[in-house]
Design brief:
The protein has 358 residues and is α+β, with helices and mostly antiparallel strands. The protein is built from 13 helices and twelve strands. The chain has a five-stranded mixed β-sheet with strand order 5-6-1-7-8. Strands 9-12-10-11 form a four-stranded antiparallel β-sheet. Strands 3-2-4 form a three-stranded mixed β-sheet. Helix 6 links the parallel strand 7 and strand 8. It starts with 7 loop residues before the first strand and ends in a 14-residue tail after the last strand. It catalyses: DNA(n) + a 2'-deoxyribonucleoside 5'-triphosphate = DNA(n+1) + diphosphate. GO terms for molecular function: damaged DNA binding; DNA-directed DNA polymerase activity; magnesium ion binding.
Length: 358
């Protein structure tokens, strides 16, 4: 019996944080908006008006302002974004229990069988997008295909407020025409390496042997070999467990004294420990992130024999880790603290180990 062809939808909200701000403040509509701090930090989200000037998420705020002098900076309101995300997820769950959130503003849905008994995934995506607009006043884009990789590529194809279907017979061809830099899972450095090897498009990638790709890209070579052919066997996994919990802060002024840095670390971990208390999540690996004034980033980690069960232990471990960078050679711009190797309080630690219409 042939394996059933899945119907996967990737929903991606359009400029989510910035769109929420424009929705709630009519005076911002039609203007270039960036969510983030104007003086320090980075752009967390940019409206489509700002993107026309080259403003992008993860860009330093100062750079964004140079590109667009009229850029309006708005402080993030995560409580609002989380509430809107909850409303959107409720809509998803009316169609399928197989919802895999990737972040507050995007998710995979497996609608091979669905709660509405709708035969076409494209109709489901269109209806979900209409429901999101009706309930939240925000637009979303959708990609529909037979696997997660292609669905995610498709959702970006007609942004904003559009949707694209890639049926099984067109999957490999769709990949062939795309630059490898646009592939989800291929970052800028990997794309540059591929370009140096003469691999510029999906078609170029497909001509490479598995042995060649494993030689130059290690275990990732197997993944690249598959996606060049439009193949991806990953399932939609609801309620995926978190791998880490963390928080970081960019300071208004760079820190130059040891006491300032230690105090900064202590202030950052409040959010981390608050999450642990609220959810019962504990972690054994503590990581401290340090970003210097010149944007160089270093990290320090320590794995403990037992989970961190108190704020005092988390602070003591974090401060000890950050002391390894003293004496300071340059001032500190950002500090972050995160916990990995997570488990729920009280739980034991696990030992390591047919064609469908679209």
């Amino acid at each position: 019996m042939a394996e059933e062809i899945r119907k996967i939808i990737h929903i991606d909200m359009d400029a989510f944080y910035a769109s929420v701000e424009q929705r709630d403040a009519p005076e911002l509509r039609g203007k270039p908006v960036a969510v983030g701090g104007r003086q320090r930090g980075v752009v967390m989200a940019a409206s489509y008006e700002a993107r026309k000037f080259g403003v992008r998420s993860a860009m330093p705020s100062a750079t964004a302002h140079r590109l667009c002098a009229e850029l309006v900076f708005v402080k993030p309101r995560f409580d609002v974004y989380k509430e809107v995300s909850r409303q959107i997820r409720e809509i998803f769950l009316e169609y399928t229990p197989l919802v895999e959130p990737l972040s507050l503003d995007e998710a995979y849905l497996d609608v091979t069988t669905n709660l509405k008994n709708m035969p076409l995934a494209s109709d489901i995506a269109r209806e979900i997008r209409a429901r999101i607009l009706e309930r939240t006043g925000l637009t979303a884009s959708a990609g529909i295909s037979y696997n997660k990789f292609l669905a995610k590529l498709a959702s970006d194809h007609r942004k904003p407020n559009g949707q694209t279907v890639i049926p099984p017979e067109k999957g490999a061809r769709f990949v062939e025409d795309l630059p490898v830099a646009k592939f989800h899972g291929i970052g800028p450095k990997t794309a540059e390496k591929m370009n140096r090897l003469g691999i510029h498009t999906g078609a170029d990638l497909r001509t490479q042997s598995l042995e060649f790709l494993e030689q130059y890209f290690g275990k990732a070579g197997t993944w690249y070999f598959a996606i060049a052919r439009g193949q991806d066997d990953r399932r939609v996994v609801p309620n995926r467990p978190r791998k880490s919990v963390g928080s970081e802060t960019t300071f208004m002024e760079d820190l130059g004294r040891q006491a300032e840095v230690e105090q900064g670390v202590a202030s950052v971990l409040d959010d981390v420990w608050s999450y642990c208390e609220r959810t019962g999540v504990l972690g054994r690996t503590v990581t401290v992130k340090i970003k210097y004034a010149d944007f160089q980033i270093v990290t320090r980690s320590r794995t403990l024999n037992e989970p961190v069960t108190s704020r005092e232990l988390l602070e003591r471990t974090s401060v000890e880790l950050v002391r390894s960078i003293f004496p300071l050679e340059k001032r500190v711009r950002l500090l972050g603290v995160s916990l990995h190797n997570l488990q729920i309080r009280g739980e034991p630690v696990a030992e390591p180990q047919m064609t469908l219409e679209f």
